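Structure (tokenized):
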């Protein structure tokens, strides 16, 4: 799994789209037709991925929104970002 640094700017993969449904969201990967369900935390994270914000900036926004310790949240969001890159939902920052 790719290591994601805090200064890494994150963006959605070109063929990934997010649709908000009920208490979460779904992500569709157009190239494969795969559909992923997201919980509220992942939905909030993906809402802040815009191709301009770094992982650190996203963690700052989420820590304010959820009133969570930034250090703990940073570890969790780094792992989540790496997983989303591995699944092809986020663009590979090394590509």
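Design, position by position:
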């Amino acid at each position: 799994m790719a290591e994601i640094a805090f200064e890494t700017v994150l963006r959605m993969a070109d063929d990934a789209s997010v649709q908000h449904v009920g208490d979460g969201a779904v992500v569709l990967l157009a190239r494969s037709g795969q559909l992923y369900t997201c919980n509220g935390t992942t939905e909030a994270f993906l809402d802040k991925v815009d191709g301009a914000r770094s992982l650190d900036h996203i963690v700052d926004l989420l820590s304010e929104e959820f009133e969570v310790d930034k250090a703990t949240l940073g570890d969790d969001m780094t792992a989540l970002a790496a997983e989303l890159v591995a699944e092809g939902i986020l663009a590979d920052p090394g590509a």
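Reviewer-requested clarification: Residues 16-87 form a domain with the Arc Repressor Mutant, subunit A fold (CATH 1.10.10.1150). The helical segments are 40-48, 55-66, 70-87.
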